[in-house]
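Run: sequence + adenosine-5'-diphosphate -> complex structure.
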Amino acid sequence: MLGLMQNQQLLISSLIEFAERHHGEGEIVSRRVEGDIHRYTYKEVAVRSRQVANALDALKLKFSDRVATLAWNGYRHLELYFGVSGTGRVLHTLNPRLHPDQISWIVNHAEDSVLCFDMSFLPIVKAVHGRCPTVKHYVAMCDADKLPADSGIPGLVSYEAWIGAQDSQYQWPSFDENSASSMCYTSGTTGNPKAALYSHRSTMLHAFAGALPDAMAMSARECILPVVPMFHVNAWGIPYGAAMTGAKLVFPGPAMDGKSIFELIESEKVSFAAGVPTVWQMMLAHMQGAGVRFSTLKRTVIGGSACPPAMITAFNDLYGVEVLHAWGMTEMSPLGTVCTLKNKHLDMAPKDKMQVRLKQGRGVFGVDMKIVDGSGEELPWDGKTYGDLLVKGPWIISDYFKGEGGSPLVDGWFPTGDVATIDADGYMQITDRSKDVIKSGGEWISSIDVENIAMAHPAVAMAACIGMKHPKWDERPIIAVVKKPGSEVTRNELIAFYEGKTAKWQIPDDVVFVEGIPLGGTGKMQKTKLREMLKDYKLPDA
Ligand code: ADP
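>> structure
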């Protein structure tokens, strides 16, 4: 016997329809590429998303055709999130921090038909458009009078002229909720980039889960600033969750430096922000230098790479901001775990609470996980035993777009490439990425643990630990360190700083001071590049 409930497909268009009717006055504030601040409401997002839909229909794009963006976090990008997916086309958010050769490779692989771009990225579009035969339409996301006359890009139109000519009435189509809605390529540290292809159903379920109190707690009382880019796994699903709940959204546009983000948080009364650790590093440095404090920020979700304990402490102790450590992947839409406390932790001493907060967190309902040994046997949840982390759930990929070589799944589980422990309360802690873990004398050393200690030293701005070949131990850790401007620390002082904080054999053999650590397109440390940079390095006793 079937239930007698209405069978409505879970479609992204329903988010913006709901937002318009139920919290139409909710605000969206964006810093524009032009430098000024733009404000409007969900009602206007809905109207302009329908104009986008009509504009796409006018181009005669087919169902599932790809519409690419090269854009910052901003209101026009938000309209494309709803307008493109709502019509059944696929929004493909390109990462503008990649090299033009990578961008053109990805555009060709995705077979994008339209490319919408912020004017900051005109030089990239100039460099790639001749190499992207599938792209038939270029849209500059600017006012009509800002369109350059001599762009050299055939048929270039301004976004405002493109949608301005369209009717604001549109009937969103209904179709199978399993249809593709958006796509995002992983950075592909090994081999070519691969794309996760999200569906309407996966995106909607992810939005429901992401808005839960033990996840990102999105609500109509929050003002959310996603520092995480809209080209980095759909800004972790925040645009969808915000439309679902009516949260005020604040977009930083191109001004991603610590000072600009801080000023926007203050002027718009942001209560919740989300981003990768390197971005917060810049903001904390700005705040400490300028002697300023937050007046409204209450929570921040930090993920994408391990959040150093020193950062959690700085937010909490200096500024009274709660840090929620989170873990996920492009292949997971991206939410996997968020570190929120349970009842039993509330009365703990701050130092014990900190031990919990450092972990990457508990599974959000919808994501199941397990750790396994080399032969695939499941390992205990004791908080000590570590193994390969596998996940499954309705917003985790079953295959890559145009996947070659068969499904990545193992017995229905997706291998994350991370090594982790899980404790009896279900808190998962990443030991390392399996390719970054350092194998020393048959034991494993977590590069994250080694980095976390260095990051707690007052003179250290950034630290990356990698393994170096060693004739006796196989590999030994060294730490590459960027010093804070005006601060001093010597190699021996930093090595001595490790004494008593970790087992002797886990202390790095050497410190290499560097000007900078290579960062990838999403602000993560690129250890492959660092290894290349240090290819002539020799361990002191090797
Ligand atoms: P890529 O960095 O390859 O583009 P993702 O952005 O999908 O891809 O990164 C996913 C990976 O980032 C995870 O598998 C994990 O190694 C790392 N990661 C994400 N969040 C955290 C975290 N909170 N702590 C440690 N590592 C993390």
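>> summary
The chain has a mean pLDDT of 95. The two ends are 71 Å apart (CA to CA).
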